[in-house]
Design brief:
Elements: E1 8-13, H1 15-18, H2 32-43, E2 50-55, H3 61-71, E3 79-83, H4 86-94, H5 103-120, E4 124-128, H6 140-158, E5 162-164, H7 166-175, H8 191-206
Parallel strand pairs: 1-2, 1-3, 3-4, 4-5
Helix pairs in contact: 2-8, 3-5, 4-6, 5-6
Length: 207
């Protein structure tokens, strides 16, 4: 068990983390975050862990940069789990008119926020690979995503972070040719996708 009594654990990201938390009286949402939180609160109630969902729908790494001080640094967490990158790629496909976040900028901004986290808190870092864009692994979105996944892997080494291999696990699942989809619309998780995310996160953190 990596967590100790009283740890504050923030999970931050886009709509996959958000999963409707703002309309949820508990501010939890119905995604992988809820499954992770419930697993730990049910399994280790004596630790009195505090989980905080800071997912916001539509966010890219630039949005995390804008709210990093208020939503992360100011809370002085013990752990921060970040999953970002899907919208940085998806917006290149569905919103070509907006300013794009290409790999060089993604790496620079991501490095900046993680540096601030290291310098201004004692938090340990968990980095989640962005998942997939379409269950067709040959899609343009998944092709573009490769560089972003590699950046997350590189940053995990640079910042001595736990790496949750969610892209790898999702790709393996799709390659298995199972009848089950993982998403509702090629990006957002269905219940199976959320369970696979939570399972991969918990297994990584527990090892």
């Amino acid at each position: 068990m990596r967590f100790i009594k009283g740890d504050k654990i923030i999970l931050i990201g886009d709509s996959i983390t958000d999963a409707g938390r703002l309309s949820d009286p508990e501010q939890v949402g119905d995604g992988y975050y809820r499954l992770i939180r419930d697993y730990y609160l049910a399994s280790f109630p004596e630790l009195n862990l505090q989980f905080i969902n800071k997912g916001v729908g539509g966010n890219r790494v630039t949005d995390l940069f804008d709210r990093w001080q208020d939503d992360v640094i100011a809370l002085q967490p013990n752990w921060v789990s970040v999953m970002i990158g899907i919208n940085d790629v998806w917006r290149q496909l569905d919103s070509p008119g907006i300013e794009q976040v290409y790999p060089n900028d993604f790496e620079r901004i991501y490095t900046d926020i993680l540096t601030k986290l290291k310098e201004q808190t004692d938090a340990k870092i968990i980095l989640m690979e962005p998942t997939i864009i379409e269950e067709n692994l040959a899609s343009k979105g998944n092709h573009l995503l490769v560089d972003y996944v590699q950046i997350v892997n590189d940053l995990a080494v640079k910042f001595d972070a736990l790496l949750v291999p969610t892209n790898k696990v999702f790709r393996q699942y799709v390659e298995g040719g199972y009848d089950n989809n993982l998403t509702t619309d090629h990006v957002h998780m269905n219940s199976i996708g959320n369970m696979l995310l939570a399972k991969t996160w918990i297994e990584t953190v527990q090892n």
